[in-house]
Amino acid sequence: MMIGITGTPGCGKTTVADLLRDMGYPVLDLKTTVGPFVLEHDDASGSDIVDVDAWADAFPYTEGFVEGGFAHYLPCDKIVILRCRPDVLRERLASRGYSKEKIRENLEAEALDVILIETADAFASEQIYEIDTTSTERESVVRRIISFAKGETPASFGSLDWSEYIADVI
Ligand SMILES: Nc1ncnc2c1ncn2[C@@H]1O[C@H](COP(=O)(O)OP(=O)(O)OP(=O)(O)O)[C@@H](O)[C@H]1O
Ligand SMILES: [Mg+2]
């Protein structure tokens, strides 16, 4: 089974990926696979612009977890979306030294549910599991992901509402 872990930058994907690896689960860091599909580097945001469609078309089905903000473009069997309340996400991104513009872009995406909407477009509801990492311990996030992957926890998403933060980030 291929299980995607997606989410806005800073929501905790790599954190849980590292813990899953420590437990012996296979986890592919998708950032390591996009190299040939980088179209240009955006100096303003400091991010690479990737031809996501070409990357996804060329991506071989991979057993285990695939982690990265593009995971929901892949034909995963199940997909986990990590979320973080925008005021807390702001602190996480600021502590990385991100520019104001890059922080704003990411907070806006999180507050507007961009990844959730893209995921819900591409997957059936039974495949999607959303986890709020704002004040959930990392180990608990990992336990929930494993339980969902094994089919012990049912799909669930759509219960979070960051709309009261939209005005702060736009
Ligand atoms: N469950 C959690 N509780 C508190 N802090 C967390 C949690 N998960 C991650 N963090 C913290 O949030 C920050 C961002 O986490 P991480 O690097 O895993 O995000 P990411 O989703 O992989 O981001 P990117 O898409 O940029 O790679 C880190 O400082 C990490 O320690
Ligand atoms: Mg990461």
TrEMBL record:
It catalyses: AMP + ATP = 2 ADP; ATP + H2O = ADP + phosphate + H(+). SUPFAM superfamilies: P-loop containing nucleoside triphosphate hydrolases. One of its GO terms (molecular function) is ATP hydrolysis activity. Residues 95-105 are annotated as: LID. Interacts with uS11. Not a structural component of 40S pre-ribosomes, but transiently interacts with them by binding to uS11. Belongs to the adenylate kinase family. AK6 subfamily. This is Putative adenylate kinase. The lineage of its organism: Archaea, Methanobacteriati, Methanobacteriota, Stenosarchaea group, Methanomicrobia.
